[in-house]
Amino acid sequence: MQVEIKEIKMQEPVISQVLAMAEFQKWLDYRKTGIELVMCGDASDDGEADGKDEAAIIEAFMNGSIVLNEDMKLRYILTFPLLDDSGSVAVKELKLNPRMSAGQFSSCVSADVKKEPMKMFINMISVLSGELKGVVSKLESRDYSVLQKICSYFL
Fold it and tell me: What is the pLDDT of residues 81-103, one digit of tens each?
């Protein structure tokens, strides 16, 4: 499957779009997703994926929010770090494992997920990062949105 990406424009990216796409592609290849990122000039209506989720992830690479570590873990630097009761930063980043076992995935998809679908992604972020579900549920919506897009590659 190919996903076409239009040019992403932003103020002073930390890394170029080409490098960001290469890093994301390296992670996708490691995950054996079969997805190939392709730059395109114009959007086409040919039934291919629209690339909005991929574009958001690439933008996060470009602005430095996502970094691919040598061990293939994605380090996500929170846009809105989580504070403790005293107002100090308690969680400023999450490191997401590149793999999830069937047992871990099963624990993410519980019976209550049908009633509350967001719980599945909170559970997945928790499993991938090793962070408690209660902490993950406190993520600001912008951070949660990017992490949710990453988690979609585990479905």
Answer: 999 888 889 999 999 999 999 99
Quickly list DSSP for the chain. -EEEE-----SS-SS-HHHHHHHHHHHHHHTT---EEEE-SS---SSSB--HHHHHHHHHHHTTSEEE-TTSPEEEEEEEEEE-TTS-EEEEEEEE-S---HHHHHHHS-GGGTT-THHHHHHHHHHHHT--HHHHTTS-HHHHHHHHHHHGGG-
Strands 36-39, 2-5: pairing kind:
parallel
Q: How far is CA 90 from CA 52, 87, 97, in A?
A: 31, 9, 20
CA pair distance 146, 54, nearest whole angstrom: 10
Residue range 2-15, pLDDT digits in tens: 787 777 666 788 99
Q: Provide CB contacts within 8 A for 148, sequence distance 6+.
A: 121, 125
- Predicted TM-score (pTM) of the model is 0.84
- Token representation of residue 13: 């990216």
